[in-house]
Amino acid sequence: MKDIKINIPEPAKRILNTLHSAGFEAYVVGGCVRDSILGREPGDWDITTSAKPEEVKKLFGRTIDTGIAHGTVTVMDGKEGFEVTTYRIDGEYEDSRHPKEVTFTSNLVEDLKRRDFTINAMAYSEEDGLIDEFDGLSDIDKKLIRCVGNPIERFSEDALRMMRAVRFAAQLGYTIENETREAIKELVPTLSKISAERIQVELVKLLVSPNPGEIRELYETGITGVIMPEFDKCVGCPQNNQHHAYEVGEHIVKSVEAIRADKALRLTMLFHDIEKPSCRTTDEEGVDHFHGHAEKGADTAFAILRRLKFDRDTMDLVKRLIKYHDYRFPATKKNVRKAASKVGVDIFPLLIEIHDADTVAQSDYLRDEKFAWTKQVRDFFEEIKKDGECLTLAELSVNGKDLMDKGIKPGKELGLILKAMLSDVIEEPSHNTKEYLLQEDRLNEIRKMISE
User: Fold this and answer.
1) CA-CA distance, 15 to 242, in Å (whole number)?
2) What pLDDT digit, counting tens, does each position of 84-108 carry?
3) Rg (CA), the chain
4) pTM here?
């Protein structure tokens, strides 16, 4: 297909030319071809070739054996690496992930047959143009995610491809072709064989995509039932409450869609109401309440993230955000100081965003008032920061050394005194001076208070 032109970067072009000059076939392949056609910036430029790994290594000065058993050699061009993989046919798959063996072939089409989706099974070179044996270009026009060949075979080879199908649909705004979708529903239990790390990567890519509402597709195909069954309990759970317009599962999805594409924020919205089903009570008037769901949900979210092998910083941040996601208070400057100090200055602006996203996913009841509240809280917080008002022990004009100079020994009492002083200056910012805080009478008063 000569009418498609792809602008291959110079380093990749040099590798292709070297392989061609040595008499081998070579093409850029997969995602870089797809993204180039879509007008997106490719992240990687992978190359497929008829040359065997040993032959590739002889042609280039610096190579790394990144996956030589499966035919992949990384060719270094300066500090940049390009994966060069020999055409291959995969043998039998035993673990829903890796073939027992691979057979190298000289046939490009045989290599393309083993790839996951038609939009990822296109190859390109300037000499031959676009090689599109499985109508990937047509599926791009139709905005369709379709397996190459038999979807049962493709998903049996690598179960993670089921999540990748939904992830690509989310990233590109595509629909999963019916036969491909039915194959996912049939084989979804095999996803349990895939490592948590690989599932995590796909989940995050979906969540931060332009279409995170594809979480619904994860549920409808049965994927959430395997990777996070806690979510399935939320689907269909009623919220008979004037603040809500949707059942818990749909509210969660709409709240994920309502917040910006940040990993921690979207994970927070995904799990913020995860324990509503277990905390649901209905009063005599038929109104549902969910007392304690934030605290319990924070612990559950932490457990899910740990199971999916997230890093500790993400786990801790999401847990804190969920714990305080429902925290409300009268919008006064003093209350904002107290709230920011209590939950943490670092996450306070994020909690305001979370409140707004939560509101978008609720009913219209008091919606304008809820947005007015977050605006007022946000304005007060910005004013507090601008004025340099004290919110943390680090911002207190007095430190432990100052207290020790006053004869107070290191230990529990010293820490309690500092906390009492912080509470004082949060109530009245003008008190944040050494002169005021270290007054003898004031110190004695604090020591007496904390000893009682």
Assistant:
1) 63
2) 999 998 756 665 555 666 889 999 9
3) 29
4) 0.94
